[in-house]
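Before any further analysis, we paired sequence with structure tokens, yielding the entry below:
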Amino acid sequence: MPAAAAVPGADLPADAADTPPAAPAAGSIELERDGDTDERIARRLSDIFTNVPSLSAVTVTVNEGVVTLGGMAPDDAAVERAEAIAVGVEGVATVENGIERDLSVDVAGGIGGLGDRLQEFTRMLPLLGTALLVALLIGGFGYLLSSFSGLWRRLTPNVFLAELIASALRFVFVVFGLVVALDMIGAGALMGAVLGGAGVIGIALGFAMRDTVENYVASLMLSLRQPFRANDHVLIDAHEGRVIRLTSRATVLMTLDGNHLRIPNSTVFKAVILNYTRNPQRRFDFALGVDADDDAEAAVALGRDTLRGLPFVLDDPSAEVRIEEVGDSNVVLRFFGWVDQREADWGKARSRAIAACKVALEEAGFALPEPIYRLRFDQRTASLPFENIGEGKPRTPAPPSSPPPPRPAPAEPGDDVAPDDEVARMVEEERAAPEKGQENDLLDPARPVE
């Protein structure tokens, strides 16, 4: 009698036999050569199923090479395995799989299985303790590295970046410790599931907190680039004021009327920033109009000399006057002058320059007319609302007017133009106060300004 071919899973122990092997190829399981073919197929399959614990309750019926399977199996994998084995027997034409899944509750087996799992968990306690200890050691080493705040502050340009590196070190070492611990206890599948779930959750949180993340990254970039200093007079889009501090969330300004203004750093990073403090030399300009019948070139020369004669106007760049346009009733002149903001207040200097140029033009005989409007009345269609003096009637003389009041003496050109910025003083006082939290300021005077 020829030896029967080995069947995958037939001679394995119960726990190993539950793992489905690769299905045998059709006709690869040989039969004994004596007896009826259907009987030999049935006997061969019955012997195989008897040696497989998960298929011991399966029944076999064979008729003309058609195998009909019945009985019970513990799960769908066992049902498919039984069919695959039947197909692999020599002489089988087809298989009718009538195996049903066993849904009965085995209380004793369940309790026994729970006991086995408890025993297995007890045996794993030393390994679990070792893995936990390794994870704690790795995570503790990360916390130890992150605690060297003085080292990170010396290596990084500001406190914000030092805290960011410390937090990243803690996170990386804690995650690495968990990965090593899970790998030690053989929970590779769980580790992959945890990391995959963390990745999905991270992507979802990234979309949900997009604005927060953008603001956080903008804070980091601003702390590195240093676009302004404390107490700089800036215009950020439409927001004007003096910089109090740059925090990890917002840029705090004090407006020119003394109010606090917090602008998110994501807005500051993308905004157009105009810094009035960076260059101490600043130009002012204003316009005055002289009568159209006056000599415009003479007015330009007089205005230029007047501006250049003011003590607070810089010689380099020199003051200039240009004819801007010719209007209906006047010629508009544009005056330009430069001041040093460290010695003269820009607003006060501009105000004094306007007054001085206006007085100089008027004293030189130049008229500064207001706009003239001409009205036309058609006498054929409307009556005039006033007396028509063109018809020969005597005109009543107007009463003598009182003399015009004397012109006040103009102020000295250099009076009261010294810088006296109350807002700058309030900013310095607030930055010096310890309770204001200036230790969170990311503006570092030791770093170069962008």
